[in-house]
Design a protein that fits this description.
By secondary structure, the protein is mainly alpha-helical. About 45% of the residues lie in helices and about 5% in strands. It folds into three domains: about 130 residues, Rossmann fold, CATH 3.40.50; about 130 residues, Serine Threonine Protein Phosphatase 5, Tetratricopeptide repeat (Alpha Horseshoe), CATH 1.25.40.80; about 180 residues, DNA Cyclobutane Dipyrimidine Photolyase, subunit A, domain 3 (Orthogonal Bundle), CATH 1.10.579.10. The protein binds flavin-adenine dinucleotide. The site of flavin-adenine dinucleotide (FAD) has 29 residues, from helix 9, helix 11, helix 14 and helix 16.
Length: about 500
Amino acid sequence: MTAIWWIRRDLRLHDNAALTAALSAGGAVAPVFILDPVLLASAYTGARRLAYLEASLRQLDADLRQRGSRLIMRQGNPAAVLNQLAAETKAVAVHALADVSPYAERRDAAVAAHLVAAQTPLHLHPGLTVLPPGDVLTQSGAPYTVFTPFSKAWQMRLAMLPSPKIQPAPDHIATPADLDGLPLPTLTPLSASPLFPPGETAARRRLAQFVEDGLDEASIYAYGEMRHRLDAAGTSALSPYFRFGQLSPRLAVAAALEAIDRAPNAAARQGAEAWLSELIWREFYSHILYHFPHVRGRSFRSAYDGIVWQNDPQAFAAWQSGQTGYPVVDAAMRQLAQTGWLPNRARMIVASFLVKDLLIDWRWGEQWFMQQLIDGDPAANNGGWQWSAGTGTDAAPYFRIFNPVTQGQKFDPQGSYVRRWLPELARVPAKYVHAPWEMPAADQRASGCRLGYDYPAPLVDHQQARARALSTFAAAARPLISGVSTAIHEFNN
Ligand SMILES: Cc1cc2nc3c(=O)[nH]c(=O)nc-3n(C[C@H](O)[C@H](O)[C@H](O)COP(=O)(O)OP(=O)(O)OC[C@H]3O[C@@H](n4cnc5c(N)ncnc54)[C@H](O)[C@@H]3O)c2cc1C
């Protein structure tokens, strides 16, 4: 008797409900990963994420081999591939972790229909998030659309449930010896990022280091303050592991709750609570995509579908290549291009700049991020872009427009982040590093950074661009806010 474990974005052996269910049938388990041509060819797929996936599949195969099993690679339409594999193995069932993207839901419905015909049921298990999307609803049974009440309800629901039993990786997995599989794939010539060693052991080690008692900058206890700093590694850098399910989100939440309990002081506790809150943001955006799948193509709030974008291709290219003339924006865009990863603060700054200062459709930025990010995740990325654009779920007003100069001064006070990614600014004094156009000509020559030669002049004037964004968004939002008096603020946090 064989059960198929269909691996998608749950590349882990610990705390995996799909694997546990496949094992509990008591027979053999066929762990299969299917290269889906639709996903490989998608405009939302990128080489860095493929390189990471490739390395992660190798690691998972090695982890399985240590337990007497192996990864069976197949390629093709998932329904056809699974039908074939079910016939080969006479599988009693296929087990997978449920996913929330509209593509995943369509794919899984098609697979389930095919497998019913083959009399092999497809079982989808929770595990992408701590609480399954659909589990946290208002008293009237509606989905939450604002983060804070969702977060409160999510925490209450979690507290009502018995403490989860985190399943360790099994010692042995019996897998039929006679199943063909493709060799482990080479998906891109790019090599995997050294910043994120693949696999669940690396993920769990990084989590353990982050939540241990130390108060250094990359610790959960320093997170409250350090998470925003661009010139320090103040966050967990776990997102690729969550993206590919190498880290159980239940394990991460349990670690955050424990850290809160044993926090040595109020500031440390606040740091750990802030980190837990970010894990809940992750849950929130999965919940939003599940309940409101239209967000993948359109604004959460339909009034904002009417925004008249400038969509200037040259400005977009300048943003993509880190040549806007705003150092903090350009440093972040070059970090993204060179590493496939960015801290949240940098993501917010560049997203605000694209959407508000350049008036470029947030969907262009969303797609570019998906092509670049190792952790590119349909739910979190869409949520982040709509939050930045002010078109999304939260009470995030469209008049939140980040000032790229003050953001830089606040979160990279000495300019070390900017200098790291923009070598042409290496010798620019701290005083001018976030606004090099203010540098007198003599200083430009002395620092080897002549504006318009070595580094571009600003693509737009921020104050003018801000005024343009406000009027453009206000025009689109008029039906939404008529009769409501709104104060216009510049948010710098
Ligand atoms: C425009 C934009 C696009 C984004 N795109 C993605 C994306 O494609 N994939 C992705 O995982 N995150 C995305 N985020 C959220 C966030 O920036 C990253 O999760 C975070 O920077 C990852 O770094 P970390 O692991 O060090 O996070 P930490 O700060 O250590 O947080 C721990 C974990 O919580 C989750 N998390 C943190 N912040 C958020 C958030 N705002 N929304 C949802 N989950 C969060 C992540 O899984 C993260 O690994 C985006 C944010 C913005 C503003």
